[in-house]
Amino acid sequence: MYQKTTSYIRQEITQTYKNFRSKYPILKHQNAIGFSIFALSVIFSATISVLWLNNMVSTWLLVVVNAFLFGVLHELEHDLIHYMYFKNNKIVHNLLLLFVWLLRPLTLNPWFRRTLHFHHHRFSGTLHDIEERGVTNGEKWGIIRFLFTPDLVLGNLIRVRKLFADIKQEVANGNLKIEVAHKIKQAGVFGLIPITIVSHLILYLFSIQLILNFLDVNFGLGIYLPEQLTSLLTYLSPLIYIILIPNLLRQFCLHLVTSNLHYFGDVEKGNVVEQTQVINVWWTFPLQFFCFFFGWTHAIHHFVVNETFYVRHLTRKKAHQIMRASGVRFNDLASIKRANRFHKDSKI
């Protein structure tokens, strides 16, 4: 039954895209549009960063603007992972992947992430969906999940044993080929080396410094980081404020949204209707702003993967009508209490 529903949704959304593209011929220039989005995002980010360095804008404005722009670049990277720009020009394609990663260094290496992301589309909601489980999908909500929502290093370090054990069991149960298991585990580990780990370590040191300064000012504790580390953080201050803190904000919002719009654990294999929901309730707007309204459109992407993020956004109202009429859930926020299970009676 679900195959028929999925096929219908996919055909209707695809036709919507075709109609929209025929109405606006400029959309045929997909490579140029993708590169323009990249260039404009970088130019705007560089501009506000220079203004901040010259004390012409406040730190909070720098963080907000760059977090939004890096959210746009995340969507661009996602399209690149699906080979939507410069597929036949490997040099430009890989250079774009490199630069959108360097501007978002808290994320996984995109070439390794491609392996995990394609696996995610094939096995969304399963025990071996490493991409989503890596951002806390399927876990009970509590202080630990909240604190480690944006953290791909310590957050995954505390859950890697359970994750790898589940993968091993899935291989034993015949649900996953052993060569695929090795491939996705390697991608999950090596994708963090070295940029992602180093970037997180800088943020950890910066956080410790903030805590120690707070304790000293308010309680006279008098404990400080070694002088060498303090000097290092001072030297790295532009990187921290221009790149890392905006990405921490962006990544927290993205992971909070994506980990709760994906269902986990009791998803019927191949049933795309059960894989995701649409989250567009008004009070999530602040979160959506910093991940380019991911909750509005990602469920659409699960049905039709080969369309750009901007066309997906521009046609989302029609897609939502089709999906809602076919049983796709909207704003099922009670799933948060169910640790992202699809069925209300599922055991956690």
TrEMBL record:
The keyword Transmembrane applies. The keyword Transmembrane helix applies. Its EC number is 1.14.19.-. Residues 60-331 form the Fatty acid desaturase domain. One of its GO terms (molecular function) is oxidoreductase activity. The chain crosses the membrane at residues 32-53, 60-76, 187-212, 232-249. Signal peptide: none annotated. Keywords: Membrane, Oxidoreductase, Transmembrane, Transmembrane helix. This is Fatty acid desaturase. It comes from Flavobacterium agricola. The lineage of its organism: Bacteria, Pseudomonadati, Bacteroidota, Flavobacteriia, Flavobacteriales.
